[in-house]
C-alpha cells in the first residue's frame, strides 16, 4: 500500500527588522534643519518687499550676521558740559573797596575777597561737572560771552555806614531778553544765599550801577546774568573773610538752583532803576 508523502510547505523567508535610528542621529538631523529655517525666517523678516529678489544678497547677509554694538555704548555717551561764567569783581583792573586798619594801613581789599570767593565757587561747580570760566572784571572774553549763566561777585564798602549796612544784594540787567529766566536766577541767588549764610537781603541799597553793570551789555544777549554783592566789608567782614567757604557755598547753591531748575519763589523784577 503506497502512502502519499506530502512535501512540506516552504517556510517563509524571515527578513531581519531594520534597526531604529538612534536618537542622536535624529537630533543631529533636526538642528541643522531648524537652523536653516530660522535663518530663512530672519532673512524674510529683514528684507522689504522691494528687496526680496534683489541681487545684493551677500550684503544683506553680512549686515544681519555682523555683531552690533551693545546698547550701552549709546546710553553711556557723555553729555556736553554746561558752561558757567564767574567774574571776580575788580580783579585784573583795580582794588575795589579798600579796608584799612587803625594805623591807616591797607589790610584788605574788595578785589582780594571777591577773587577768593570766586575761586571757591569755580571749584564747587567743577566738582558738579560744570565747565567754569573764571573771568576778570574787564576780561576780553566777556565780549559775546555765551554760557547758561554768568554771575559777577562783588562786595560793598569797608566804611561804617550805619547798623543797617549789613547783608547782601543781587541784581540783574534791566535789558534782559528773557525776564522769566533772569527772575529765576535772581530768586535762586537770593533764596539759596540767604538760607546758607543767614545774611539778610539788603534790597533797599541796590543801585542803578548794579542794574547797569557793564558786563550785562558785553555778553551774548542770550546769556542770563546777575551781579551779587555778598556782604559789606565792614559789618560782614568776619563771615566774608573767616567763613569764605560758607559764602562761596551760598553763591554755588544759588547758581545750581537756577541751572537745575529747582523750585524757588521768583523775586520781583525791577522795571526801572531808582
Walk me through what this model shows.
The protein has 274 residues and is α/β, with parallel strands linked by helices. The protein folds into 2 domains: 23-66, no CATH class; 83-259, Zn-dependent exopeptidases (Aminopeptidase, 3-Layer(aba) Sandwich). Helix content is 38%, strand content 14%. It contains 9 helices and 7 strands; from the N terminus they run H-H-H-E-E-E-H-E-E-E-H-H-H-E-H-H. It has helices at 23-46, 57-65, 72-75, 110-127, 179-197, 208-211, 215-218, 237-242, 244-259, and strands at residues 83-88, 98-100, 106-109, 131-135, 149-156, 169-171, 225-232. The chain has a 5-stranded mixed β-sheet, with helices on one face. Strands 2-3 form a two-stranded antiparallel sheet. Helix 4 (110-127) crosses helix 9 (244-259) and helix 5 runs antiparallel to helix 9 (244-259). The longest helix is centred in the first third of the chain and has 24 residues, at 23-46. The protein is globular.
Amino acid at each position: 500500500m503506497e502512502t502519499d508523502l506530502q512535501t512540506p510547505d516552504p517556510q517563509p523567508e524571515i527578513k531581519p527588522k531594520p534597526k531604529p535610528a538612534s536618537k542622536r542621529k535624529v537630533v543631529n538631523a533636526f538642528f541643522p534643519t531648524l537652523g536653516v529655517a530660522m535663518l530663512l525666517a530672519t532673512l524674510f523678516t529683514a528684507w522689504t518687499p522691494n528687496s526680496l529678489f534683489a541681487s545684493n544678497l551677500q550684503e544683506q547677509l553680512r549686515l544681519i550676521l555682523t555683531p552690533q554694538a551693545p546698547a550701552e555704548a549709546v546710553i553711556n555717551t557723555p553729555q556736553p558740559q554746561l558752561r558757567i561764567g564767574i567774574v571776580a569783581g575788580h580783579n585784573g583792573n583795580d582794588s575795589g573797596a579798600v579796608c584799612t586798619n587803625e594805623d591807616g594801613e591797607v589790610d584788605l581789599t574788595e578785589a582780594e575777597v571777591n577773587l577768593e570767593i570766586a575761586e571757591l565757587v569755580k571749584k564747587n561747580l567743577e566738582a558738579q561737572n560744570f565747565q567754569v570760566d573764571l573771568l576778570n572784571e574787564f576780561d576780553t572774553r566777556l565780549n559775546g560771552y555765551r554760557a547758561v549763566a554768568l554771575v559777577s561777585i562783588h562786595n560793598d564798602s569797608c566804611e561804617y555806614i550805619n547798623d543797617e549796612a549789613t547783608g547782601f544784594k543781587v541784581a540783574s540787567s534791566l535789558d534782559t531778553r528773557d525776564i522769566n529766566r533772569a527772575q529765576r536766577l535772581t530768586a535762586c541767588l537770593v533764596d539759596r544765599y540767604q538760607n546758607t549764610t543767614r545774611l539778610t537781603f539788603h534790597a533797599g541799597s541796590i543801585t542803578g550801577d548794579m542794574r547797569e553793570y557793564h558786563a550785562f551789555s558785553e555778553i551774548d544777549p542770550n546769556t542770563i546774568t546777575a551781579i551779587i554783592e555778598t556782604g559789606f566789608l565792614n559789618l560782614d567782614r568776619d563771615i566774608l573773610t573767616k567763613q569764605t567757604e560758607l559764602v562761596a557755598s551760598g553763591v554755588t547753591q544759588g547758581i545750581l538752583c537756577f541751572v537745575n531748575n529747582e523750585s524757588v519763589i521768583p523775586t520781583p523784577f525791577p522795571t526801572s532803576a531808582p
